[in-house]
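User: Predict the complex with flavin-adenine dinucleotide.
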Amino acid sequence: MAETNGISHGERTTKKMHFVIVGGSLGGLATGIALKTLGHNTTILERNPTPLLHDQGAGIVAGGPALEFLRRYNRCKRQDIAVPSDRRQYLNKNGDIIHSVDASHNMSSWDLTYHLMRANYDGLTSPYCDVPPDDPTHGTTTHQHNSTVTSVAQTPSGVQVTYYTTTDPNLTFTINADVLIAADGPSSAIRSLFLPSLKRTYTGYCALRGTVPESNISSSTLSLLTNRFTFFHAPGIQILTYLIPGPHGTLTPGERLVNFVYYTNFPADSPEFREIMTDKDGKHHRLTLPPGMVSPSAWEKQKQIAKEKLPPQFAEVVCAATRPFVQAVTDVISPTNEFLDGKVVLIGDALAGFRPHTVASTSQAAYDAMVYADYVAGEITREEWKVKTMGYARYLKTSPVSVLCGFTQEGLYVTNEVMANMAELPEVGQSDTFVD
Ligand SMILES: Cc1cc2nc3c(=O)[nH]c(=O)nc-3n(C[C@H](O)[C@H](O)[C@H](O)COP(=O)(O)OP(=O)(O)OC[C@H]3O[C@@H](n4cnc5c(N)ncnc54)[C@H](O)[C@@H]3O)c2cc1C
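Assistant: Here is the predicted structure with flavin-adenine dinucleotide placed in the model:
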């Protein structure tokens, strides 16, 4: 059996390998958990200067691959991480339901998912969940924060990875690995080393996001939104809400959060775009403005627009958010998921960061991690791994919602009729195949 990158293609390898994973968010953690379960040793290098990533307090929709990942690998006693939603509904400007369809979704939060994954990866204790017992068959795990990776060089047996810490940015450190996994997000530094001309491109619209404790929402609005995935569309606007777990991942009714994602056009280079991306201290952010940093005057303007343009229930939720944040929506997709003959592998948003839509990014991270683990375990061939991973990324990039959210500079416009008739994204399972 051919062996190039240390992985015996098509058959289970008995060699214990060392994987260095760049990025300790959901993609890096998912890959670390899957590989340690196979008995391999892993080291996560995360640039964040503190041991825990700070959540942006927002929701994620746990799609098929994310749920399948948890079924396979979550060893915590806590299994339930989602607030269920059983209908999609569409409102008109007056706030009346104009269409609804039965559709089951699992709404979770980024911070609960992160803490659950940390408990499974390196046994982090937190109020979110219990920590599973050690399993002697698992590989070792190291989670190293304050470690920004800058380069990777091929060695005869693998790769050498270089990083620095904030203690002295001029001092660099190296670590050797059989394989480097780049799970360093849509602006991936590792991808840029191999594909320097591939850039994220701004699509012309932003997501204004936030959460509101359900106890701060009027009872009429809350009863409309509870257990529902609710949408409103108008020229240049798409907004959606759903309920997510509350502080420390609680699912208790009354303590959960109403999550909103409000997509709206901000043409590139326009004064409005500059204004919303300039924080309360006057600093301009290129793509993401974190919670608590939005300028009060810019947000006041958005609240006024929300009151004018949104159904009253959506306007109420947007106006009640105290720590909104802004994400400029971008596109990027790598033409390949591996470099240096498979010694460098892209996972999750580093491989393809696309326009947000239901179940996309977290599902991709979980899917990539599972399929890569299947390849490392010898259950699928290298070609199958590649076709599945690249196929899934391209599938998500061109899926109906992504395309519908594409009419940007001319106006983000998705009609209620189109949305209502739009087929649900099919669940993608391990057995699905894609044309590469
Ligand atoms: C703090 C945080 C909060 C988030 N909150 C939400 C949310 O509420 N809802 C939602 O839908 N999505 C959220 N996301 C995005 C979501 O995690 C991803 O879209 C998806 O899960 C894919 O994850 P990923 O690990 O591929 O990429 P990302 O989540 O983007 O993670 C990339 C990681 O790599 C690290 N990194 C980047 N460059 C380097 C480097 N050179 N060296 C070392 N480390 C590096 C980053 O600090 C980051 O932790 C959040 C991401 C982060 C980082």
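Residues 18-76+111-199+331-399 form a domain with the FAD/NAD(P)-binding domain fold (CATH 3.50.50.60).
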